[in-house]
Amino acid sequence: MNEQVTVFLQHAFNGISMGAVYALIAAGITLVYGLSRIIHFAVGELVMLGAFIALSVWNWSGEFWLGLAVAVPALALIGLVTERAVFRFTLREPLTGFIVSLGLILILQGTAVEIWSPNPQYSQPPLEGSWDVAGVLLRKQAVVNFAIVVAVLALCYLVLMKTTFGKSLRAVSDDPGAAALMGIPVRTIIMTTFVIGSALAGIAGWMVLTLGLITPFVGAIYVLRGFAVALIGGLGNIQGAALAGIGLGVAESLAAGYVGPGWTDAYVFGAVVLILLWRPTGLAGGSEGAKL
Amino acid sequence: MLSRIAPYLGVIALGGFALLLPQAQLSGQVMSLATGAVIYSIAAAGLGFLWGQSGQLTLAHSSVFGIGAYAAAVGAKHFGLDFVTAFPWSIGLSLVAGALIALPSLRTSGHYFVILTFAVGEVITVIEMRLESITGGVNGITALPGAQTLFGLRIGGRTDYYLVVVGFAVVVFLILLALIRSRWGILLRGMRENEDLSRSLGVNVALHRLIAFALAGAVAGLAGHLYMYFVKSIAPESFTSHLSIIFLLVVLLGGKTFLLGPIIGSVVYVFVPEFLGLSPVRSQIAFGVILVIMILLAPGGLMSLPGRAMARLRARKKTA
């Protein structure tokens, strides 16, 4: 194959594996926002916690996959606790929920520094090596991660579209008042989305760990990409988040590969700004958002 | 008449008290903390004005503060500007930056705008890190000169600089107070409460919002300038969104519609961890908890608590 094509495909593949992580985070953001109208900005810190919990379990047990098995329920529990302790009191005033999440950033980040120290930490992913497909190196771990993301998002989609629970959830998203009148337990459903959204962040955290270094401060990187993806896909839209996540990952990887890696963040966030200016409610169309 | 000038006298009295503080023979460390607290209160006052009066929240405030600091630092390092001659640049650039950040608010609102300001802040941080020839990259700019003179007066040491900072704070708070009490202040609050109604009455909402943002930016830039001449070394990591959250906390602690709120907020923010001997990380956790508790239980700020307690007592008496 032409060498230039190979290089291009290599960048694209690297982008897809990173984009899958963004899609996962964005799906959680979109679910939580779709039901509670809360911009949960501490989701980056949830990803970071997922990564550190997985790392600790791995260091302790020597089993990398056990890290995933512990991180996900642990994060689901954090989601449950934060919803019960604070977010449920902020449903009337979504801006309050947003500010609460800013407070959570300080709390979760500080706690992580206390427990794990501020130094970068690294883990050896369980699957090493890569498959060579026509000159393009597919890292085994990245392929497995991608498969997990596809499976998880497909599961989310099926639950949303095919189950009674999913139907209730969509009803609450459309019109909480009418849903409540139909006997749907609105509060419980909203609580559940916080649990699911946090669990998705837990999976994403584990994946971040498989892909490189982590520090207690990586949250900001992921929250903004997560929101970028959720916005581009349209807040409240899971399929949009999946596509936009992959799209962002690929665009980022191509920009880093062909223009230079140093400015990647600037391109990504610059693009967010431009997209929001061009389509103030996201590309796929979403809700207007509460007035501040 | 007295009720009209009382608030101004209050600001001046508070400023006078702050100017007398060095007479108490406080330790150098306490004076440093006090200087930091006053600088934070100036920056937070800009955010408080924007949020409390026009109802706009931004997470790029720390970046605009940083632009003021960088303008002062680059001016000192590359252009031979000193404490006084750098002011037009630091204030001017941050004023423009503030207005630019406001531009998107004309097209997008609510959640989308807040996320957008966060993104703008991140872009500014990346620029500070990557334009190495000007900003010094990740390491920033170090070994900068201190403030030497102001209006012919020599600024000798820490105490002198504290007095200068307090002087600037008094001027800023007096200006903000006059603006809040002016017709323009009423106009902004009208826009905050009902944008459509204001527009229907012929108010140029976009223009006034832009001016409010530019003003908040200029105030933040002034504070950034004072900050740079205080710490004498700056780096991109000092101006991340983390600091914006702190400004928000400071405003919220004091109460966002209360002019002097930022002073109360920043004094609490700077001195309480020091008195309790908390490590920076522990105090970060503590302030996260305080931020959550404040927004849930006392969104009007610490100053609203006595009033609310009184109201509750009165209500209890009535029922009894």
How many domains, in number, for the residues of chain A?
1
| Fraction in beta strands of chain A | under 5%
Oligomeric organization of the protein chains: heterodimer
| Helical fraction of chain A | over 70%
CATH architecture of chain A: Orthogonal Bundle
Output the CATH class name of chain A: Mainly Alpha
Strand order of the largest sheet of chain B: 1-2
The total count of strands of chain A amounts to 2
Total helices of chain A: the number is: 11
* Separation, N- and C-terminal Cα atoms of chain A: 54 Å
Explain how this protein is built.
- The complex is a heterodimer of chains A (292) and B (320).
- Chain A is mainly alpha-helical and 292 residues long.
- Chain A has helices spanning 3-36, 43-61, 64-85, 94-116, 140-162, 164-174, 176-181, 186-211, 219-233, 238-258, 264-278, and strands at residues 130-133, 136-139.
- Chain A has a single domain, classed as ABC transporter involved in vitamin B12 uptake, BtuC.
- Chain A is globular, with a radius of gyration of 19 Å.
- Chain B is mainly α and 320 residues long.
- Chain B has one domain.
- Chain B is built from 14 helices and 2 strands.
- Chain B has helices at residues 2-20, 28-54, 61-78, 87-102, 110-130, 132-135, 158-180, 183-193, 195-200, 205-231, 241-254, 261-276, 280-297, 304-319, and strands spanning 149-150, 153-154.
- In chain B, strand 1 and strand 2 form a beta hairpin.
- The termini of chain B are far apart.
- The chains are: A mainly alpha (292), B mainly alpha (320).
- The interface between A and B is large, with 47 and 41 residues.
Topology, element by element:
The complex is a heterodimer of chains A (292) and B (320).
Chain A: H1 3-36, H2 43-61, H3 64-85, H4 94-116, E1 130-133, E2 136-139, H5 140-162, H6 164-174, H7 176-181, H8 186-211, H9 219-233, H10 238-258, H11 264-278
Helix pairs in contact in A: 1-5, 1-8, 1-9, 1-10, 2-3, 2-4, 2-8, 2-9, 3-8, 5-6, 9-10, 9-11, 10-11
Chain B: H1 2-20, H2 28-54, H3 61-78, H4 87-102, H5 110-130, H6 132-135, E1 149-150, E2 153-154, H7 158-180, H8 183-193, H9 195-200, H10 205-231, H11 241-254, H12 261-276, H13 280-297, H14 304-319
Antiparallel strand pairs in B: 1-2
Helix pairs in contact in B: 1-7, 2-7, 2-10, 2-11, 2-12, 3-4, 3-5, 3-10, 4-10, 11-12
